[in-house]
Design brief:
By secondary structure, this protein is α+β, with helices and mostly antiparallel strands. It has one domain (28-138): Beta-Lactamase (2-Layer Sandwich). Helices cover 26% and strands 26% of the residues. The chain has helices at residues 8-18, 63-66, 69-85, 140-145, and strands at 30-34, 40-44, 89-96, 101-111, 114-122. A hairpin with a 4-residue loop joins strand 3 and strand 4. The model has no long low-confidence stretch (mean pLDDT 86).
């Protein structure tokens, strides 16, 4: 049975417990929540960005069904290792879209019975696809939570 999607507020509360405004450069562009079987349960895009593989259309699908064969195998192995060891993992996937190729740096964290994946997209030369600063309006919720 699929878990309910989280509200924007729930995502922002979680992120404000993890990140501070001055860490904007390391802030994820996309976040995914997988259940114990590697099925996409939820996603959140805290900053406006395009997802090469469909964003919210991924909900209910498995890692292997969504990604190209090699990338799906790599992510699923990292997902499984994270679940089994309860130790965060980091991996990189090279994803080729219709018009561009990007490197997705994915930080996997055990969370409840599943895994959270924090994704930061980079160009092939290593530059982040989005350069965030503490003043970015998308990160305003981090500033408001700084006084908690």
């Amino acid at each position: 049975m699929a878990s309910a999607r989280w509200s924007k507020v729930t995502w922002e509360v979680l992120l404000s417990q993890i990140f501070r405004p001055e860490q904007a450069f390391f802030f994820p562009h996309k976040i995914f929540r997988w259940n114990a079987n590697g099925i996409y349960e939820d996603c959140f895009f805290p900053v406006p960005c395009r997802h090469m593989l469909g964003g919210e259309d991924l909900i209910g699908k498995s890692i292997q069904d969504v990604l190209p064969k090699d990338a799906g195998r790599t992510l699923y192995q990292g997902f499984r290792r994270t679940r089994e060891t309860q130790i965060p993992q980091e991996l990189q996937l090279v994803l080729t879209g219709e018009q561009e190729t990007r490197v997705a740096v994915i930080r996997l964290f055990p969370f409840q019975q599943g895994v959270l994946g924090f994704v930061t997209d980079h160009f092939m030369d290593g530059r982040p696809a989005l350069i965030l600063t503490p003043q970015d309006p998308s990160l305003a919720f981090l500033k408001s939570s700084a006084n908690l």
